[in-house]
Model the fold of this input.
Amino acid sequence: MLETPYIVGDAQLDGLDAQERLSERALSKLRWRTRRGLLENDLFIERFFARHAPHLTVGHARGLYVLMDLADNDLMDLFLQRKPLPPEIATPEVREVLDMLLA
Done:
């Protein structure tokens, strides 16, 4: 299991295998936490959930929580590929979720 040097997201995910599917409760909390101030960001995120919600894992949730800690404009820059993923958050989980968001 990948350990990140910071605490992110839902404490109920702590200690779970990254490959474990998200529970309905964890998915609901994740959806709530991903609500953004910029409509453009919300559109990317809603499309992500429409495509991937049934198959999201604990690892995906962890990666998405890290991205949601970014400011709206920084997140939009990632979505529009205007800036690279900052190295301090560029874990495999974050990279995978960002790829899923951009697909």
Observations:
- Residues 38-103 form one domain.
- The radius of gyration is 13 Å.
- Helices lie at 24-33, 39-52, 58-68, 72-79, 92-102.
